[in-house]
C-alpha cells in the first residue's frame, strides 16, 4: 500500500476504513487470558472516565489484578494517579513506536491496580497510527507479554477515532456509559454501527455488556421517556448512577468515589454496578 493510499484511508470515517483495510487473522494466543472491557461512548461528558476509574479500582479492591488503559489524549484517568506530562513512557509509545503495554505500565498506590498511562501528545499520533494496515491491531498486539491480569479496563476517548477502534478490536466486552438525555441517545447510533462492523469483520467475540445510566435524575419526564427507548438498543444495567457531587469531589481528591465517601449514594451505586458486572460475566 502506497503512502498516498494510506493517507487517504486514514481520513475515511471509521466504518469505511474498516471495510477498506486488509483484514488479518488475530486468533493466536496472547498469554494468560484476561477479560478486556472498553468503556466507550463517542459523546463527551457521559461518565466514561468516572466509570473506568471506579470499575478498575473496585475490581482491584476485590483482589482482582486489574490493568487500567488510558487511551484518551485528555489523560484524565492518568491524572488521578500522576502528572501525565511528567511521564517518559505512555500510550504514545505504544501507538507511535509499537512499545508493549508491559514496557509502559506503572504500579499505582492501590494494590492490584496497574496503569497504562496517557498524555496529551497521544493526539499527535492519531493520523499516523491510522495510516497503517495494522492500525486496528496496535493495542491488541501491545498486550503480548502481560501475565497474571484478571481484567483490563480501557478508558476510550470521546470519539470514534483509531484509538477507540483499537480498544474495540482488542476487547471482549463494551460498556456504554450515557445520560438519559435525547442527545446521548442520538449519539449511540454511530457507536453501534462501529461495534457491529468490528464484530463482523475483525472481532466476532465482541459483545455489548450493557449501558450504564449515569448522572440520573429519576423524577424527570425526560428520564422516564428515554430509558425505555434505550432498552430497544441494548441491555441496560439495573444499577444506575445518580446525579450528585460525590463523583466530582472524588476526582478532585484523586480517589474512587468509594474511597472518598463510601457512604455516599454514588459510592453505593458504583459498588452495586461492579457486583452486577461480575455477576453478568458469570452467565
TrEMBL record:
<dbReference type="Pfam" id="PF13614">
    <property type="entry name" value="AAA_31"/>
</dbReference>
<dbReference type="InterPro" id="IPR027417">
    <property type="entry name" value="P-loop_NTPase"/>
</dbReference>
<dbReference type="InterPro" id="IPR025669">
    <property type="entry name" value="AAA_dom"/>
</dbReference>
<feature type="domain" description="AAA">
    <location>
        <begin position="36"/>
        <end position="208"/>
    </location>
</feature>
<protein>
    <submittedName>
        <fullName>ParA family protein</fullName>
    </submittedName>
</protein>
<dbReference type="InterPro" id="IPR050678">
    <property type="entry name" value="DNA_Partitioning_ATPase"/>
</dbReference>
Amino acid at each position: 500500500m502506497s503512502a498516498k493510499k494510506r493517507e487517504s484511508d486514514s481520513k475515511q470515517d471509521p466504518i469505511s476504513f474498516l471495510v477498506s483495510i486488509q483484514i488479518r487473522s488475530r486468533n493466536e494466543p496472547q498469554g494468560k487470558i484476561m477479560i478486556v472491557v472498553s468503556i466507550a461512548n463517542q459523546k463527551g461528558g457521559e461518565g466514561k472516565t468516572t466509570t473506568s476509574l471506579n470499575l478498575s479500582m473496585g475490581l482491584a479492591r476485590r483482589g482482582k489484578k486489574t490493568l487500567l488503559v488510558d487511551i484518551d489524549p485528555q489523560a484524565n484517568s492518568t491524572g488521578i494517579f500522576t502528572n501525565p506530562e511528567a511521564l517518559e513512557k505512555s500510550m504514545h509509545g505504544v501507538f507511535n513506536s509499537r512499545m508493549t503495554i508491559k514496557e509502559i505500565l506503572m504500579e499505582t498506590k492501590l494494590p492490584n491496580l496497574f496503569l497504562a498511562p496517557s498524555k496529551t501528545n497521544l493526539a499527535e499520533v492519531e493520523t499516523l497510527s491510522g495510516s497503517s494496515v495494522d492500525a486496528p491491531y496496535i493495542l491488541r498486539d501491545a498486550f503480548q507479554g502481560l501475565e497474571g491480569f484478571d481484567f483490563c479496563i480501557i478508558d476510550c476517548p470521546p470519539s470514534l477515532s483509531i484509538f477507540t477502534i483499537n480498544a474495540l478490536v482488542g476487547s471482549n466486552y463494551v460498556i456504554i456509559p450515557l445520560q438519559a438525555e435525547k442527545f446521548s441517545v442520538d449519539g449511540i447510533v454511530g457507536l453501534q454501527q462501529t461495534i457491529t462492523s468490528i464484530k463482523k469483520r475483525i472481532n466476532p467475540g465482541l459483545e455489548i455488556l450493557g449501558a450504564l445510566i449515569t448522572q440520573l435524575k429519576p423524577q424527570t419526564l425526560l428520564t422516564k421517556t428515554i430509558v425505555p427507548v434505550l432498552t430497544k438498543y441494548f441491555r441496560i444495567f439495573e444499577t444506575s448512577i445518580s446525579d450528585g457531587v460525590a463523583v466530582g469531589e472524588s476526582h478532585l481528591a484523586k480517589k474512587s468515589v468509594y474511597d472518598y465517601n463510601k457512604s455516599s449514594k454514588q459510592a453505593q451505586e458504583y459498588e452495586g454496578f461492579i457486583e452486577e458486572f461480575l455477576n453478568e460475566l458469570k452467565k
